[in-house]
Write a structure and sequence with these properties.
By secondary structure, this protein is an alpha/beta fold. It has eight helices and twelve strands. Helices cover 30% and strands 18% of the residues. Strands 1-2-3-4-5-6-7 form a seven-stranded mixed beta sheet, with no helix packed on it. A five-stranded mixed beta sheet has the order 8-9-10-11-12, covered by helices on one side. A hairpin with a 2-residue loop joins strand 1 and strand 2.
Amino acid sequence: MEMREKGRGDLKEAPSFHPIASSPVQIPRRAFLCTAAVFAATAFTKTAGSIAAEAHLPFIEIADGVFVRYGVQEEMSAANCGAIANIGFIVGDESVAVIDTGTTLQQGAALREAVASVTSRPVSHLIATHVHPDHCFGHAAFSDLPVHSIGHRNLPRALAERGPFYLKRLAEISPDFSDTAYVAPEETVSDTMRIDLGNRPLLLKAWPPAHTDNDLTVFDERTGLLWAADLLFAGRLPTLDGSLTGWLAALDVLLSPDVRQVVPGHGQVSDGVETLQEELAYLTRLRDGVRAAIDEGLDMSATLARLEDDNQLDWLLYDTNHGRNVVAAYTELEWE
């Protein structure tokens, strides 16, 4: 359902909103188009040269007080304004937790405006699920607020190592992204952390290396909703940037009996069961195929050639990312 009155205290009807008009963050005029075209909840008139003006990405209430903006299932580009990951927020009786902020300052500002359109309760927690810029490079839009900024214990190091490269890459994709900056968390999670938004307890869990070496999930105890982020991909090929064996181990225990609904990092919300099974099958075939190639003495190029066509489930972006996964898996497994 779209954002609307739910009869919960100061939660308010979310009218069609312009994500720039009253933004708390000053956004360059040149970035107006990306923000308006991609993040508005209602249609805008196209102008000559407009980009993806029909790609309206609203924040949708998927469970009681849980709002998600679905990213488009594409590679990051100027045309889609980098809006490729699922981002959103959870509203408690006293405050709000934002979970991932998108790729750019503009996306973070639009997310902040979306929160304000739903409730007057303050944002108290800003959570980054991992280092990849499509998930956490909009954090600067909240930098003036007294929030608890939280991430995995490895996230500050990962941002320091990769952040400058990611910013350079974003600026190369589009000058509209050049005012983006990454923000390291002030609080980190080594194992688990429990926070409460007011009758809204959330359990944050830091995972061993899997999709990355800094994956963090959020479990909403009220609704049984697990914000799995990029530990799960729905429809779009999973991308390996951590540990293949670690990721497989994480999937074995990801869906506890208490989980009723799952927000993946990319793709549609579901109960998570089929999504997990599909991802598990792909990663298992990747592991077994690479191990067999290594055992036979095949080098990287020969392994890539052998495993080139494994798109049994018609994953989106397979041609873009499968080869990278083979290389990452080979690099890891050749040292077993």
